Amino acid sequence: MKIKLRKITHDNLPQKLQEIDDCPEHLYIEGNLPDPDTHIYLGIVGPRKYSEYGKITCEKIISGLAGQPFVIVSGLALGIDSIAHTTALETGLPTIAVPGSGLSPSVLYPKTNFHLARNIVDAGGALLSEFEPEFKAAPWSFPKRNRIVAGLCDAVLVIEASEKSGALITAKFAIQYNRDVLSVPGSIYSDTSAGSNNLIAKGAYVITSAQDIIQHFNLDKHSKPEQSQLFESFTEKEIAVLRLLVEPKTKSYIYENSGLEIADCSITLSTLELKGVIKEQGGRIYRY
To answer: Where are the beta strands (DSSP E) in the chain?
Structure first.
């Protein structure tokens, strides 16, 4: 499948990225960046070799952010990155991947996440890279990628990290760029939590649930009541569809992720359109 890349120069980069000292001169992008004025960009980082505790924690925290204005940003790597992107897609949150390679299908790294990358774009998210499209990932390209993840985000959440971890490099950049660093505490006997526990000791915000993040950004008193009021007049089936439409989605995505039978989902979409709650445009479903 041929991807549609475009190149954006410094003046057109997201404002937060323009503010960092080592801002990239340009980025290649496929897909769409959610409006930073209405979304909170949350970086999620962790190890490739994660523990079961790290996996479950990552999934539960991201799932708990459903209905909130978060964009999940990570590096498309194996491990926690992949879990973060996948859970965001399943939850209906937009997600952005910043691989350590160019974006051409022939070099996209890792190759095993090619289909995940396609799903990210199809769901309304984006792939970003400062490297030329045919650039193959190299050991030095991952720290450069990490600085973009940190610079793009309002905060970075470290799920797990050993004492020598790429996740800690991202956290270091986040501190340098004056971004909030959030960290999940882990067992003092676990090597995969040594780095994340050390971040907490040095002042990182402790995160044990999605609600901690929601409260950190003062959303608990604002977004939740509005969401509750919004859903009061809808059926359970309609709510299941509406929760997926934080960002525009294709019908196929809604069919696959709503938990409804295709016939029920189709009827529900028609009903919501008649109610004036959603509209279809350009092959995607939008929520007003």
So the answer is: 6-9, 26-31, 40-45, 70-74, 95-97, 126-129, 155-158, 180-183, 205-206, 278-281, 284-287
